[in-house]
Task: inverse folding
């Protein structure tokens, strides 16, 4: 008997936003997924609510806020892909409660961010942003005042993860002395040294570069009080998230000449599109490099991200694997060539696995393989079964109390 419960690939709809790279489309096409709605820009919230109703997969970057309210309209949604590192723009818990894994690309743009920051360090240490602005205005101030080589200077990195540690290595290759602060104990690369307090880092380094994720604990990490702890004449760089720095306090420190300059790529409020003007108290400073959240925007990064996240979509859709999902129990699965594969996502409550297994006993269906992972909230069990007809089986599994969703793979 043919299986009537899994969805034909041509009916599985992908909604891709914010101009994700062509590689993503290529990966999906190669895997047989052709039902793709592609947008170069982010959608307005109302447009998104409409578009997401029919989508099984959605791909986005940092401009799309996938709030719990918007997810309420996403009744067919199977998975979310952030074509970037940050996942703070997605209501992760709400997605998990609906049984929707969220994938991202945790490494693909990290080198691009580290290279941008390195360039900014070199430019700010030589006063190039201000010199460039002055010459554009017709002013000719040939001077070495306040202009320095980076060799022998102290770089302080806040957050020694994928980006911070790469920056550490390339900065050392220019002769910089690297120190870092991280809430976790981290293996220092090269000659870098971990310091035990943020205050120590801020007050002793010539350049501070922020590389922490957006979390409740990193909100306003660089508050007015912390900005006041920066070494006089130092440089502050933020290519992490806009919520991490108190921009008004930074503007005040620049106004008073307490710090030498800054480079800011991310802002508390970023324009939703190119049509919206960018407002910031930092716009007036020649010694501040302002960029429109382009730390990860290189051809290389975007190509890699397109391939990586689309491949995670394909793997989840074809095979059920949730490896590297950020909000979901991670299951890495072998291929299921002959058996039928059933995915069951449920609230993590005592006894539910027994009830699932009882369905197979009652139906006299042999389980060829079973994979289970749980987290505090949900359980994800994948069952390979030796049966041709899974229609009744799926209905019975769906009716178990505590089930969030169940499906049979194509
Ligand atoms: N400007 C841009 O276009 C881009 C920005 N990003 C941002 O950069 C962030 C960092 O990226 P990765 O290095 O890949 O992340 P990661 O997760 O590899 O590293 C983050 C590090 O920060 C540390 N950390 C967390 N809270 C901290 C705190 N309160 N104080 C000190 N350290 C803390 C963690 O222990 C970890 O070592 C991302 O979360 C993202 O928001 C990432 C890519 C592009
Ligand atoms: O490229 C983007 O849209 C966002 C990059 C970013 O901030 C990230 O990867 O977390």
Result:
């Amino acid at each position: 008997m043919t299986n009537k419960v899994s969805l034909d690939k041509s009916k599985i709809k992908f909604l891709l936003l914010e101009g994700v790279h062509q590689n993503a489309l290529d990966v999906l096409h190669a895997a047989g997924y052709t039902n793709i709605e592609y947008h170069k820009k982010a959608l307005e919230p109302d447009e998104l609510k409409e578009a997401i109703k029919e989508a099984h997969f959605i791909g986005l970057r940092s401009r799309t806020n996938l709030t719990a309210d918007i997810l309420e309209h996403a009744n067919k949604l199977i998975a979310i892909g952030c074509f970037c590192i940050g996942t703070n723009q997605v209501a992760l818990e709400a997605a998990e409660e609906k049984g929707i894994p969220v994938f991202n690309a945790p490494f693909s743009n990290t080198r691009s961010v580290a290279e941008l920051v390195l360039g900014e360090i070199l430019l700010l240490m030589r006063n190039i942003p201000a010199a460039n602005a002055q010459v554009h205005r017709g002013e000719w101030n040939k001077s070495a005042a306040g202009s320095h080589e980076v060799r022998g200077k102290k770089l302080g990195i806040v957050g020694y993860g994928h980006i911070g540690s790469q920056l550490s290595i390339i900065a050392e290759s220019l002769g910089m002395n690297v120190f870092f602060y991280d809430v976790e104990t981290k293996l220092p690369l090269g000659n870098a040294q971990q310091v035990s307090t943020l205050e120590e880092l801020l007050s002793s380094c010539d350049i501070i570069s922020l590389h922490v994720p957006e979390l409740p604990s990193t909100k306003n990490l660089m508050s007015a009080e912390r900005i006041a702890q920066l070494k006089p004449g130092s440089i502050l760089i933020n290519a992490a998230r806009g919520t991490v720095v108190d921009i008004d306090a930074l503007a005040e420190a620049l106004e008073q000449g307490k710090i030498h300059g800054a480079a800011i790529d991310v802002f508390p409020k970023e324009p939703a599109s190119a049509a919206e003007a960018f407002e910031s108290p930092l716009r007036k400073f020649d010694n501040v490099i302002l960029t429109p959240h382009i730390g990860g925007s290189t051809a290389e990064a975007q190509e890699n991200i397109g391939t990586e996240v689309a491949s995670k979509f394909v793997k989840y859709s074809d095979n059920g694997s949730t490896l590297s999902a950020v909000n979901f129990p991670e299951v890495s699965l072998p291929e299921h060539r002959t058996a039928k594969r059933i995915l069951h996502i449920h609230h993590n409550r005592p006894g539910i696995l027994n009830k699932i297994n009882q369905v197979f006993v009652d139906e006299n269906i042999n389980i060829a393989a079973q994979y289970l992972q749980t987290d505090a909230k949900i359980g994800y069990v994948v069952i390979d079964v030796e049966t041709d007809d899974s229609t009744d089986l799926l209905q019975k599994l769906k009716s178990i109390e505590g089930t969030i969703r169940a499906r049979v793979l194509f």
In short: Residues 118 and 171 are 7 Å apart (CA to CA). The chain has a mean pLDDT of 95.
